Amino acid sequence: MYKGKRIPIRPLDSEGNKRYAxxxxxxxxxxxxxxxxxxxxxxxxxxxxxxxxxxxxxxxxMYTMRSGKTLEPARLYYHNxxxxxxxINRLPGQGPTLEGSPKCYADYYIDDRNxxxxxxxxxxFKKPCVDWVQIRKLLKKAGLLPKSLPLT
Length: 152
Hints:
alpha/beta, 20% helix, Rossmann fold, 152 residues, 3 helices, disordered N terminus, four-stranded parallel beta sheet
């Protein structure tokens, strides 16, 4: 577990550019094993990584196909893991569309269905899931995670 402290930063730099990223993160197959409509086992390193991102002031949007009765257990899962959600499926105040599109805006999307996202079949899981060691490598290389954060 990363023991770093929350770094107080302003949301905008001196030129008015935001200093945090918005991550749209899928649920099934990304942070838990894809056992829809049930909630699967935790994918190793997923919630720990997301928690560190929030400590660094980044925003997490749960971006999922779940809705109705299946959405609440996913929201509670984030809550129980101590990962605050900035939003679910759309940004605050977005409404049903953003500039004519229903797609949620984010700087980065993490999803087991993304081309190029490393996936791995963990023992005992129903389906392959996101390989968060690979995600951590990418995020560290981009300067979005502390270099001191271990990969595993």
